[in-house]
Fold this sequence. Notes:
By secondary structure, the protein is mainly alpha-helical. It has a single domain (2-329), classed as Growth Hormone, Chain: A (Up-down Bundle). The protein contains 14 helices and no strands. It has helices at residues 2-25, 32-36, 39-53, 56-59, 61-84, 92-118, 123-138, 147-161, 181-201, 207-223, 233-249, 257-277, 286-305, 317-325. The longest helix is centred in the first third of the chain and has 27 residues, at 92-118. It is globular, with a radius of gyration of 19 Å.
Amino acid sequence: MIHYLLLYQFPFLYCVTIAMGLVVYGSDLDSLAGNLYYIPLLLLPVLHGVVKKFYRPLSSFAAATTVLLLGATVALAGYQYLHFSYWDEHSLVQAVAVALLGILSYLASVIASIRLVAWEGNQRRASAGAWLVLGLSWVPAFYYPMWSLFVMAVILVLASIWHIDRRYDVDPVLYKKMTTRPVKYLVFLLMMDLSLVIWDYQVDTGWALHLGGAFMAAAVGCWYAYDAQNKHFRLIMIIATLNFVAAIIWPPFILHFLHSILIGLPLGWGIGYLIYVQGDIKSLPVVSATMLVFLGFGLGYLGYSNLVHAQWRIVFLLPLLVLLLIKYSWPGAGKLSTS
């Protein structure tokens, strides 16, 4: 389970925390400190391109342990600073720490990808358990908004201790090649919908309970994603679509816990599906999930900040419907389609 927590910590702990911090607590793009926060996101495609070609150094035990422990140190230092102080968008020290943590957090997720290729444990149970722990870890953020940074430090430390008793320099093999277009777009819609509760609560930390509920529900959705027959694809799409439309028709539904839970179910299924059908270091959704989180949160904020046009979010459903109608994007009623 620790390897899945290590994989999830970058998109669903670091990225969510930073997106929330920048929007709720402020950022100043006219200053050097304000621009540093965006370095990990801007460098992400470049880093991923380099890692895909030169991932072997990260597969060594010494390199992995160094990255994990250094990341844990930076996370603890950043959390201590923000716990006893406040989010200061003009603080250069805070900005450097957060940006450095983002790069180390990404590399830690890559290390998790490498380990998962070699791991022969129960993928379904480990992935679902990781979502459950992730959800529970967001609950204390109701009192300590930056608590997720402390959780990241704990995950990184445990991952440096708890390792697989084998070499990690295996050649990653893409053992399944299946369509992911509609599922990736679904994750984007879900993150956009989930972001609305944060933008509504703002400095009121009630959003932490909604995030916790959504990620705990994701554990249930993830459990049903590891299914070669893919029996739940249509049901998941229907639940996600109806929930998305309900929040548009009746905006107060955004603050209902049922809305967050109905986001979490398909979110866990979607991420689990992407991991199940793409099984190597070059394909695990570290980068795509992160981009979807940021893009969804960004467009969700734009939609919420312009309430007059908020109902136009329904237009974002059209590409999903098109993807589902395209023959090569439809997994089919039986086994997952291959290409």
